[in-house]
Design a protein that fits this description.
By secondary structure, this protein is of the alpha/beta class. 39% of the residues lie in helices and 17% in strands. It contains 15 helices and 19 strands. Helix 7 (168-186) runs parallel beside helix 8 and helix 14 runs antiparallel to helix 15 (371-378). The structure holds zinc ion. Zinc ion binds at residues 314-315, 318, 320, 322-323, 350, 353.
């Protein structure tokens, strides 16, 4: 049941893509975002399934870990197997057997990482496919068409991703181009269950960030959510947070805000403290496959010899399948050293659960007005 602004209950169906703010504590918020594939409780960390799989984890396990939205990468899926095949097999949800909300990035970030392989102009980006060397064209229109075919619930605008060193006129021009590209993205129709999130850019310049956010909202006043991009790309953390603040202060409070590419416990808390609701990062799962796992007292490297004879789990009070399953650090060390796939899987389950549990705790603390308390508890111990 929904309660209307006048306080009267209504039996009206909730509108898909609606964001309901449940509580605020300072700038930190908790809320509910309604997608066609279910409600998302925010703050929410989104595990990354680059090639339509969160490596080594079953969809059912993702749910059990507390995952809500998961991410897939347009660039990789466009190259292989191709969006036509995925659409033919029923779209991403059916293809990867995940019936919860899915977000696809625009492919821009990956393309801009291919420094030697690209030509950027007003039309878009041309690059050589790392798969077969063929020339691939990615334009704002093309990115949205690919994402429409993939069928994710949240579709990201195609933006230009400046590097952390870009300044001056070059940065201003790049920020302008992202806005022109946004207009082109908005002109491409989506499927009814899809929503496009524009991306605020502006590099490491707070004024440009503010202007980018203002103009983004003016171009897409109906957008169902907004993202902050181009941060966490190697700059000092103090800069990240200052740029984040400049971006967020211009965004409407009644829409979710997504920080692209953030995934350490400290970063999650710092971002939520500045009004962010959604984040994703490939590092927790990639690190896990390399034996690096989260621990409240600091990350552990399971490959280190010190763990070889340790009978304890990764973390005594963790409720993930690795820790509750009685798998010792000694066993996990052995699996990691032998590159056994179960080692990567167990470490992945732990790292994902660690962040998803942190999100649960953040939501609870915000709802109960205990945000400062949780921050004081988590931040001093958390490593970057
Ligand atoms: Zn665990």
């Amino acid at each position: 049941m929904i309660v209307t602004a006048t306080g009267n209950p209504t039996t009206e169906q909730p509108e898909v893509f609606e964001y309901r703010l449940r509580a605020r504590d300072g700038a930190a918020r908790c809320g509910t975002y309604l997608s066609a594939h279910g409600a998302v409780q925010t703050p929410c960390f989104m595990p990354v399934g680059t090639k339509a799989t969160v490596k080594g984890v079953l969809p059912r396990e993702l749910r059990e870990l507390g995952a809500q939205v998961i991410l897939a990468n347009t660039f990789h899926l466009h190259l292989r197997p191709g969006e036509q095949i995925i659409e033919h097999l029923g779209g991403l949800h059916a293809f990867m057997r995940y019936d919860g909300p899915i977000l696809t990035d625009s492919g821009g970030f990956q393309v801009f990482s291919l420094a030697e392989l690209r030509r950027i102009d007003e039309r878009g980006v041309t690059f050589r496919s790392p798969v077969d060397g063929s020339l691939v064209d990615l334009t704002p229109e093309r990115s949205i068409e690919i994402q429409r075919a993939l069928g994710a619930d949240i579709v990201m605008a195609f933006d230009e991703c400046p590097n952390a060193q870009m300044t001056g006129e070059q940065l201003a021009a790049s920020t302008d181009r992202t806005l022109r590209w946004l207009e082109r993205c908005l002109a491409v129709p989506l499927k009814p269950h899809q929503a496009l999130f524009p991306i605020v850019q502006g590099g490491m310049n707070a004024d440009l960030r503010r202007a980018s956010a203002q103009r983004t909202v003016a171009l897409a006043p109906q957008a169902r959510g907004f993202a902050v991009g181009g941060l966490s790309v190697g700059e000092a953390r103090e800069t990240t947070y200052a740029m984040l603040e400049a971006s967020v202060e211009q965004l409407p409070p009644d829409r979710p805000r997504y920080f692209m590419g953030l995934g350490t416990p400290r970063d999650l808390v710092e971002a939520v403290d500045r009004g962010i609701d959604l984040f994703d990062c490939v590092l927790p799962t990639r690190n896990a496959r390399n034996g690096r796992v989260f621990h409240p007292a600091g990350d552990l490297n399971l490959r280190n010899a010190e763990h070889a004879r340790n009978p304890r789990p990764i973390q005594e009070d963790c409720d993930c399948p690795a820790c509750t399953g009685g798998f010792s650090r000694g066993y996990l060390h052995h699996l990691a050293k032998q590159n056994e796939m179960l080692g990567g899987i167990l470490a992945t389950l732990h790292n994902l659960r660690y962040l998803l549990r942190l999100c649960e705790r953040m939501r609870e603390a915000i709802a109960q007005g205990r945000w400062q308390e949780l921050k004081a508890e988590v931040l001093p111990a958390a490593q970057r």
